[in-house]
Structure to design on (397 residues):
């Protein structure tokens, strides 16, 4: 019997990316659908070449990409130094590698998109892409997460896939108009993505739960140790953006509560704001440890979608900050807006300028939050089952 293939960012050393990729595999396992994740190793050269070309062109007009490029250069300079940064990063990457090897079932190595396309016809009944920001403009340009390599005879599914931003540049729009109609079953993670699919295809597609939300906090215990990684009362900080006010808020909260600050610094790249604000800088932590640190924290402060989602799962006192402080076409704030709207927690979204006294006593009605997540979860499972059964017709609401 043919398998279902998963196209995901299982290889990316990012906590949210790896956990959502695992959740997608877990979902198919629960449905007793034989599956494997497509091995990226032999395809990386093609994908990286296309993305590099996109970034070279886009950085000329995008201030966000220019800023990221500047931080990347800073990361290189720090890594070339004689400090602990390079050794610490190697240790963290080793934890990611261990997690990947332990949990993911990957396919054989395909040497090219052409070889993968042939394998799809021979070995797979369906190819599922998802979730995370796999339809960002650079990924559209790479033409992997678009499923363009899948023959028309094979079922194609996009589960909770995200464009990552509310609008696309003109070239990405043209590409989206080409690839989206060829995906039989499309669901998205954000309202903004729903609008983009409607704009490009005329199809009204559902907004479903991120794969990590298909499972509750107890079910996520299977991939983490039960004992706390850190003892005592701590504020867990997980920031990806370079925003000093968010760290300053953490310091003020620590002073008000008496909790120490434990942080995962320099997550995706070197971030200057991560220097010297935390009492404990944590490095040797994989995705399993990430879950443990959230579950056992007194408070969680983050600008991350997935850290927010797991904070809800574990009923934490938490606040989430917008990574982008202004309206911009490259902003990824829309995913936070949708998640917090779905869960009725808009008051947990902050800028970092708020007074601690106004925030510290804000309560969360977790009974209501779980009711909302349960409804979304059931709706999402129903959608996924229908898509995998495949009526060979595109989805319409």
């Amino acid at each position: 019997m043919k398998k279902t293939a998963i196209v995901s960012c299982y290889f990316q050393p990012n906590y949210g990316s790896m956990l959502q990729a695992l959740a997608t595999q877990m979902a198919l396992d629960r449905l007793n659908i034989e599956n494997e994740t497509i091995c990226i190793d032999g395809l990386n050269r093609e994908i990286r070449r296309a993305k590099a070309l996109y970034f070279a062109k886009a950085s000329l007009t995008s201030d966000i990409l220019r800023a990221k490029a500047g931080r990347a250069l800073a990361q290189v300079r720090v890594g070339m130094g004689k400090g602990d940064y390079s050794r610490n990063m190697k240790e963290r990457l080793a934890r990611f590698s261990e997690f990947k090897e332990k949990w993911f079932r990957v396919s054989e190595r395909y040497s090219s998109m052409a070889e993968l396309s042939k394998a799809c016809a021979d070995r797979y009944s369906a190819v599922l892409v998802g979730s995370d920001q796999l339809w960002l403009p650079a990924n559209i340009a790479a033409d992997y997460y678009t499923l363009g390599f899948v023959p028309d005879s094979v079922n194609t599914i996009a589960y909770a896939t995200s464009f990552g931003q509310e609008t696309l540049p003109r070239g990405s729009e043209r590409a989206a108009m080409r690839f989206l109609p060829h995906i039989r079953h499309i669901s998205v993670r954000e309202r903004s993505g729903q609008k983009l699919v409607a704009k490009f295809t005329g199809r009204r597609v559902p907004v479903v739960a991120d794969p990590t939300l298909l499972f509750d906090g107890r079910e996520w215990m299977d991939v983490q140790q039960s004992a706390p990684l850190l003892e005592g009362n701590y504020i867990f900080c997980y920031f990806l953006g370079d925003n000093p006010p968010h760290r300053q808020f953490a310091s003020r909260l620590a002073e008000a509560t008496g909790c120490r600050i434990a942080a995962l610094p320099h997550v995706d790249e070197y971030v200057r704001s991560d220097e010297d604000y935390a009492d404990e800088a944590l490095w040797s932590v994989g995705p399993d440890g990430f879950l443990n640190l959230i579950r056992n924290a007194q408070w969680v402060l983050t600008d991350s979608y997935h850290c927010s989602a797991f904070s809800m799962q574990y009923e934490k006192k938490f606040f989430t900050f917008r990574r982008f402080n202004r309206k911009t076409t490259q902003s990824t704030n829309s995913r936070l807006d949708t998640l917090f709207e779905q869960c009725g927690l808009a008051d947990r979204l902050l800028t970092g300028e708020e007074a601690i006294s106004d925030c510290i006593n804000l309560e969360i009605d977790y009974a209501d939050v779980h009711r909302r997540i349960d409804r979304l979860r059931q709706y999402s499972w129903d959608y996924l089952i229908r898509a995998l059964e495949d009526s060979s017709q595109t989805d319409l609401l």
